[in-house]
Amino acid sequence: MGGRSRKAPEEGWQGWDAYAPFYDWENAQTVARRDVAFWERLAAARDGRVLELGCGTGRITVPVARTGARLVGIDRSSPMLARGRQRLRRARLKNATLVRGDIRLLPFRTRPGFSLVMAPYGILQSLTREKDLQATIASVYRVLRRGGLFVVDLVPDLPQWDEYDRRTSLAGTRGSGTRITLIETVRQDVKRRLTIFDHEYVERKGRSRKVHRFSLTFRTLSVPQMSRRLENAGFRIQAVLGDYHGGPWDNRADVWIIIAEKR
What we know:
The protein is built from 6 helices and 11 strands. The chain is an alpha/beta fold. The strands form 2 sheets. Strands 3-2-1-4-5-11-10 form a 7-stranded mixed sheet, sandwiched between helices. A 4-stranded antiparallel sheet has the order 6-7-8-9, covered by helices on one side. A hairpin with a 2-residue loop joins strand 8 and strand 9 (208-219). The longest helix is centred in the N-terminal third of the chain and has 14 residues, at 16-29. It is globular. The protein starts with 15 loop residues before the first helix and ends with a strand. Mean pLDDT is 94; it is low at 1-5.
């Protein structure tokens, strides 16, 4: 495994506080808004409150709230939430609330329950231990009302990423002349199904230079593996999609989406 001197963070939530200032800049160049309309349609079709796991900076929260959905977002990272709350204030949206908490033990009452729980863009892959995934699925089941949907979006290509060391992955400007460069190392721990990204963000403005280093770790299960865990927790798999437009899934699909219903 590449980069043997570095270890994967023990917990999947580690690194996200440091990532907060760069998350939106990076995602604007990668995933952008290609999944947003999917979540908007799902939320608009549900009658009742919506919960977003790992709401972060509000990339999904704000457009979904604009559909009129009554939305609660939860995230563990205070710096990410601060950016999300700022985004909501700018949008003047009163129907969305952001809460700091742990998705493994959701701090919500069983009743009235949520009609939809969204797990966008690989958030469940940040659960690097099996016990954490099991706890999260059970917690979601508890706060969903009967007939409610748990929709999971997995990033399928993480285990297939080639390992490399200190590659310049992205470069560009932000704000008033700040130059940002992402130097990235990718490592695979095949036995534990982990993909580790060692990030080094370099900010330059004039003669000033700042370096920010942190790691993000993801654990990837296949669609059948994740589906079995959902079914074992009491969910019924309603559909498995291979894109954000309702297309069929197979192992080669660019997107893995599981729609599960609480029985």
